[in-house]
TrEMBL record:
<protein>
    <recommendedName>
        <fullName>Lipoprotein</fullName>
    </recommendedName>
</protein>
Length: 167
């Protein structure tokens, strides 16, 4: 009887773990010195016409060192394009974006440093980029519109589709 109970408990835990890993996740490594928020936009089709209905917010606790932030997408959302808006906090002078990893069902792909900008492009209307240091800053320091990264053509879409269909 005990053996049956242990087997049942192990099976239940295994199912829970596989369910946790079934959501699409964007892991970012960054330096955000003040408490702030990231606004994540996503598309499931072939467009980059982002809107509020396909977006969500993630709070980030300020730290003076690198931190890893796991951004879990809503259930059943597997995007093929992603936009990241950094910082609504006017006291946030810069964000250092070191690395990202997209993960889905045990598979992932990673880009770090300058390679990030193969997949994302800076929104020149509101963002200044120092590629050497990975530093993103807002152009206008008097507005809450912070730095933004948009998909760089279809490079990101291709990688996300590969990840989605990888077995």
């Amino acid at each position: 009887m005990r053996l049956f109970f242990l087997f049942f408990l192990f099976s239940l835990i295994s199912c829970e773990d596989s369910n946790k890993n079934s959501n699409f996740v964007l892991n970012v490594d960054l330096v955000v010195k003040n408490d702030d928020s990231l606004h994540i936009y996503y598309k499931k089709g072939g467009t980059i016409n982002f809107n509020e209905n396909e977006s969500f917010w993630v709070r980030v606790k300020g730290q003076n060192k690198n931190q890893k932030v796991a951004i879990e997408f809503p259930k059943d959302i597997v995007p093929n394009q992603v936009r990241i808006d950094f910082s609504r906090n006017l006291e946030q002078r810069e964000i250092i974006f070191n690395k990202f990893e997209f993960a889905y069902r045990g598979n992932s792909f990673v880009a770090k440093g300058k390679d990030i900008y193969k997949y994302f492009r800076v929104d020149d209307s509101n963002t200044l980029l120092n590629k050497e240091f990975g530093s993103l800053t807002r152009k206008d320091t008097t507005t809450t519109v912070g730095p933004s990264l948009y998909p760089n053509g279809y490079y990101l879409a291709v990688k996300l589709d590969e990840l989605k269909f990888k077995k």
